[in-house]
Design a protein that fits this description.
six-stranded antiparallel β-sheet; seven-stranded antiparallel β-sheet; about 475 residues; disordered C terminus; Neuraminidase; globular; mainly beta; 1 helix; 38 strands; 2 domains
Length: about 475
């Protein structure tokens, strides 16, 4: 049965939403002003809370705005966000989707229908507010888009002139007020599901667009409070860490991943200054302590690419601590760990912590913390690459090398602890994966590393 509902939405002012025959229409409230040029920038909408509906989905939003833009000829995209942005810039991590097409809205007269299409399906949750912004493409902007105003020249001579009113002031002048109601519509598909992880409920934390900079290298961890924290790398330089400006952002969920917020989401922001030690931050390796509220990120930083790194001018290493407050992660300023990590072996000329998950032991505990294990990728200044395993007994405060080379002819790797406390390492290669095993005779120290690493041809899929 189709329901018709009326709820509040926002379009710089109060608007109304009407649902009928699976088409949802947003009608702007009265917009008043004394100028002939009126403008709009964004609108907000709250999805209905229909019983049994898990999500509303669409691939297009249609704008019906009667205007005559006689001076502006910009191409406008539609940017969808879950946050109401009060300033001019839309943070990159707030963007859900950007329309795949744009329109020039100049001299459109009485027919202002413009349909913004999206290459991926927009999925809206019930009883959740979203915002859409008109924006122009801007390669100089951090996220590739700049919010823009649509100017409406509402003139008395036009047949589509909205209702007007006039008022006089004490000095005898008159003010003309133009009232206008723009509309937007979406043809929605309603999805029902008892499983919150079905298609309609999968969450996109970050997304890259053809006209935007890429997001890469995600990581996720579960805190001791039962909350989820995810990290993602935003490559403003459009290349990997070391080439230029890169940032690490985080998002946070306290409902097992059903919804996410970006509360305190700036983990480490690169300065973008060429040659500086903080030019960029990327390749986050993440872990949340199982007994305390502490969170740790180890990452690469600086403006030197891994393959070009030398001991005198290395790709750098940073440590970032965070604390789960129950409302988000409070991130501390990065600490440079370059000297400490490179000091572990005089042969290290370039290295980085393998991004993703840092392994925390379930059986080895020294002092206040269970042991951490992380793989690093290393070169000695030649064309060969090696995996080592580092461990920490003070939650990343200091690190030591576990034995020697774990895997030769290596690439990015992950480690995982087996039920008996042994340590398994898996490293990708061009056509498969290499494996090795640290077998401990004494979990407090003694171990045996299987000599020749094993190989299996899976492509590059991980089995860890």
């Amino acid at each position: 049965m189709v329901k018709k509902q009326l709820i509040t939405v926002y379009f710089f002012f109060i608007s109304a939403l009407v649902w009928s025959d699976d088409v949802i229409t947003f009608t702007g409230g009265t917009q008043s002003g004394s100028s002939l040029s009126r403008f709009v920038k964004s609108f907000g909408f709250t999805m209905p809370d229909d019983e049994g509906i898990s999500s509303y989905q669409t691939n297009a939003i249609t704008l019906n705005l009667k205007y005559n833009n006689s001076t502006k000829n910009s191409n406008y995209y539609l940017v969808v966000s879950k946050n109401n942005i009060s300033n001019k810039d839309i943070p990159a991590e707030d963007i859900i989707a950007v329309s795949s097409n744009s329109f020039s809205i100049k001299n459109t007269g009485n027919s202002g229908n413009k349909t913004f299409n999206f290459s991926t399906t927009l999925k809206f949750r019930p009883n959740t507010t979203y915002y859409a912004y008109f924006a122009t493409s801007n390669s100089a902007a951090t996220n590739g888009f700049t919010p823009a105003y649509i100017y409406m020249e509402l003139k008395n001579t036009n047949s589509y002139q909205p209702t007007t009113s006039m008022s006089s002031s004490a000095d005898g002048t008159y003010t003309t007020t133009y009232n206008y109601k723009p509309t937007f519509s979406m043809d929605l598909t309603r999805k029902t599901s008892s499983d919150p992880y079905q298609d309609g409920e999968l969450q996109t934390l970050w997304s890259s667009y053809s006209t935007n900079h890429p997001w890469r290298i995600p990581a996720i961890a579960l805190t001791s409070r039962g909350n989820l924290v995810a990290c993602g790398g935003f490559l403003v330089c459009d290349m990997d860490i070391g080439f230029g400006e890169c940032h690490i952002y985080s998002k946070y969920s306290n409902d097992n991943g059903v919804t996410w917020s970006r509360a305190n989401g700036n983990v480490a922001l690169g300065s973008g200054i060429s040659g500086s030690n903080d030019c960029g931050y990327g390749d986050a390796a993440l872990v949340a302590d199982r007994e305390s509220d502490r969170v740790l990120v180890m990452c690469a930083t600086g403006n030197v690419v891994y393959t070009n790194s030398t001991r005198s001018n290395p790709i750098r290493v940073a440590r970032i601590y965070g604390t789960d407050t129950g409302d988000g992660i409070n991130w501390e300023s990065p600490t440079d760990m370059t000297s400490e990590i490179y000091g572990l072996n005089s042969s290290f000329a370039g290295l980085f912590f393998a991004s993703g998950r840092i392994c925390q032991s379930r059986v080895v505990k020294t002092g206040d913390y269970y042991r951490l294990y992380s793989a690093i990728l290393v070169h000695y200044g030649s064309g060969s690459h090696y995996n080592y395993v580092l461990y920490s007994d003070d939650f990343g405060g200091s690190w030591k090398v576990l034995g020697g080379v774990a895997i030769s002819s290596a690439n990015e790797a992950k480690v995982e602890e087996l039920p008996n406390g042994d340590l398994f390492i898996s490293s990708r290669t061009g056509s498969g994966r290499l494996f090795n095993l640290f077998s401990f005779s004494d979990l407090g120290g003694g171990y045996r590393l299987l000599g020749q690493s094993a190989y299996t041809q899976f492509g590059q899929r991980s089995v860890v």
